[in-house]
Amino acid sequence: xxxxxxxxxxxxxVGGAWIEAGEDGIxxxxxxxxxxxxxxxxxxxxxxxTAIKAAEAAQIDWAARTAKDRSAILRRWYDLMxxxxxxxxxxxxxxxxxxxxxxxxxxxxxxxxxxxxAEEARRVYGDVIPGHAPDKRIVVIKQPIxxxxxxxxxNFPNAMITRKAGPALAAGCAMVxxxxxxxxxxxxxxxxxxxRAGLPKGLFxxxxxxxxxxxxxxxxxxxxxxxTFTGSxxxxxxxxxxxxxTVKKLALELGGNAPFIVxxxxxxxxxxxxxxxxxxxxNGQTCVCANRIYVQAGVYDAFAQKLSARLxxxxxxxxxxxxxxxxxxxxxxxxxxxxxxxxxxxGKGAQIALGGQPHSLGGTFFQPTVLTGVTxxxxxxxxxxxxxxxxxxxxxxxDEVVAMSNDTEFGLASYFYTRDxxxxxRVGERLEYGMVGINTGLISTAEAPFxxxxxxxLGREGSRYGIEEFxxxxxxxxxxx
Length: 481
Ligand code: ADP
Known about the structure:
seven-stranded mixed sheet; six-stranded mixed sheet; 22 strands; binds adenosine-5'-diphosphate
């Protein structure tokens, strides 16, 4: 169990004060067993306004500190996350379901954003521009945007928070966060560690409760200058609409429909491994998960066979068991969507090469599934499945597969495997996506800009570009020189 019970706290942090959950709090359950983990407070608009007010006050002092000072506190927060990685991973697995090893991977990945932006805090450089008149000088400075609101999803209960809080706090902003109601304890544990690291009171609030009420108060606030959201395109559009009246800056990480292309000249074993990482990580529940796997005709059958054989050897089970590779899905809605996509595909002529059914473990466990004979007319071609289903489409030419890959409203991640360098450049440039993995199924890292185009969202997280999202550019014109 946890060796620091303080990390699993049934309370929210609002403007520097902890609010304990009562009997009427929101229940949080383990998706693997259905067991009650605990409760969190059911907060709304009023508490959100309190948090925003406290953030506004705390931000002024925070922004006035040196970048080095802010950096040191963030670095301590990072160190505490790493020291407590096992505890944080266990909390994450309990509420989210992913296997412990994967959860620990997420904690270290999440922590890496705090580390990276602790370093970047000191490199928010401005510019001096040659003047337009003999007596004038032009200077550009970058200043923190102010109070930032963040809303995060359940699939990465830790990393989706740090990827936003790291750059925001490093830049000198304050943050008011609403984590997903399925996975609030990971967010709360982060707040506990932030306090221990010495983050000033009120600078970082974690509000649990009604998404609509909290989101509504965030978007209505004049004080909140930026909203950063990761979640569904549907909710992202609604938040964008709600933010219009106060002309907020927005960062939106929304849905994807990632193509994963295997060309005839690919290293097939590598491509199978990449497909498993990209398609089945977090049991298919990530926005960069391969959703459509396009395989060139010459290697189609061999790829289908190898992929099915590898998947059949990997264990489905409770994430807390050591040898589990695939955990449960987050809830019954997720199971229904997976079943629906399989039924739609088989109804239109696809075959099941592996799985296809709810798992005998019951609950929200589902068999890893491979479908062959999949075509663009099926629902899996258009919508994100967000589950353990690998649909294999067959193609012949580069032009054909690029056209099929781009035939979607989404533009987040894409992947392809080839050993031909010229093809790698050509296809890489033609894919309409914010991110392209070439001969790899794993592209996310603190050093690189994560984000999408089209309906997949706005803005980039991570990398040196990530901190730019949390500053305003100001131009000082010096005259009379
Ligand atoms: P997912 O498909 O990942 O559950 P959602 O977009 O439904 O994506 O949820 C992502 C986050 O957005 C969660 O924290 C959820 O509580 C929040 N959310 C959902 N609906 C709203 C809304 N109307 N206003 C503000 N936040 C919302």
